[in-house]
Amino acid sequence: MRKRAFFLAALFGPAIALVFSIGAGAASESTARDEAELGRIEQAIRASIGWAKNKDLELLYHTIANDPDFLEVHPDGGVVKGFEEFKKAEGIWMSPNFKAVRYEIRDLRIKLSRSGDVAWFFCVLDDINEWKGQPANWENTRWTGVLEKRDGRWVTVQQHFSFAEDGDAPQAEGPAYPVLFYSGRNDNKDVYILRPGEREPRNLTNHPAQDLCPAASPGGDRILFLSDRGGNMDIYSMAVDGSDVRRLTATPEIEEHPEYTPDGKRIIFVRDFEKRTEIWIMNADGSEARRLTNNEARDERPFMSPDGSKILFMSNRDGNYEIYTMDPGGGDQTRITRTPEWEIFPAWSPDGKQIAYSRKFREDGRMKGMIRVMNADGTGDRAITEIDTRDENAMWSPDGRFIVFQSVRDGNFEVYRIGADGSRPVRLTDHPAWDGWGCYLPSGNSRN
Q1: E strands within 98-196?
Q2: Domain check: are 154 and 272 in the same one?
Q3: Residue 103 · residue 13 · CB < 8 Å
Q4: Which of 20, 95, 102, 364 would bridge 9 by S-S if both were Cys, CB 3.0 to 4.6 A apart?
Q5: DSSP tag of 174
Q6: Same-domain status, 157 and 194
Q7: CATH number for 425
């Protein structure tokens, strides 16, 4: 598990270089005051890390600007905006699975403003930690930030973490959100998590049953998945560390494609009746399930819009798979694509203005597919991956800047990431077994 610099232990690093500018002719008394201020700034910087040794949240929050203008940029481009969003990771920070081991700060440099109430800093940071007894480190991390003196104490108002260029770290330029997927490695299908900065994913389910199709809650604290561990393919949920597994459905039919609604209070999913599939909705605890579609076709892969006003889904009701929308209650079912190919696996962008999906077709005796993006009304459709491969199951990053998908472009299905504009494709998994059905875990736990 990769966690952010705030999970670091409280050991002090080596010698520190403090750099500040003093105007010509400044008195020694002024110099002494500046040196004392720099010492207090250094204490605030260290406290924003050292709190993790004893999990002292009060100490952490004493060093962070408690306002909506707080800004934090992660190594992979993810952004935390505001103190309230920053606090969403408390559940992981305080988890017994997390242990801060040590940290080291090198080459700390602090610049104090002439007014004496603003400071800038730079350092190189090693972040050594454990998650469930396994290493979870950030090493050689560049850390820069801005502090302001408020009510007599120094607080961080902005900070930026970045990695040195490393060709072996596949997520170094992507968003700082963990990626969930399922894989057939180890001769069994399990749900895995790949955290930014880590090269190997971790098995979250680790069960002899078939565990498939992970989907993250909006707050990043729960993961839905499918499993046949109860004798039939049903919907389960678990905590982000794989604990607290709960069975949510128990029907004779097969359940498929679960997704949380944007408020996290309900789950939309597919129930398979063999010759047809229908879209259902239930409470997040599995209660009060009700059907939204009712026909002889296959209605699949539902996804609710961020504002909760529409549900995307794919259906072959008109001869081949196309993309449709409907109201949250199942009314006003409207077709928005019309091509001879299959349009499958649609997903709303975080702002609800765009839809990513896969267009699939057969050519030269084999299946091909590309990731495409269109406006919410079906206009402005364009391809963002090449046509001569098979790319499927696009899912947006929470900040809308990236898309994760599965592809056979390198020989077998692996998980890839690409910019929302089609730029910077990166392979995230590398295993002979099937890896796919990727999605991002939102920012509530992206610091881990």
Answers
A1: 98-112, 118-131, 134-135, 138-150, 153-163, 179-183, 190-194
A2: no
A3: yes
A4: 102
A5: S
A6: no
A7: 2.120.10.30
pLDDT averaged over every residue in the chain: 86
Task: Flag whether the pTM goes above 0.85.
Answer: no
* CA-to-CA separations, 43 to 3, 5, 50, 59, in angstroms, rounded: 22, 16, 10, 11
So what's the pLDDT on residue 85?
84
For 421, residues 6+ apart whose C-beta sits below 8 A from its C-beta are 384
pLDDT at 22: 38
Neighbour-count burial for 303-331, b at 16+ CB within 10 Å, e otherwise? bbbeeeebbbbbbbbeeebbbbbbebebe
* Token pair belonging to 408: 């056979």
**Pair (74, 213) in one structural domain:** no
Retrieve residue 374's tokens: 């269109």
**Cβ-Cβ contacts under 8 Å for 356 (sequence gap 6 or more):** 346, 347, 349, 371, 372, 373, 384, 394, 395, 396, 403
Q: What is the predicted pLDDT for the residue at 170? A: 44
Q: Residue 36: give the domain boundaries.
A: 5-163
Q: Which residues pair with 162 in a beta bridge?
A: 142
Q: Are 194 and 179 in contact (CB under 8 A)?
A: yes
Is 267's pLDDT higher than 80? yes
Is there a contact between 214 and 181 (Cβ–Cβ < 8 Å)? yes
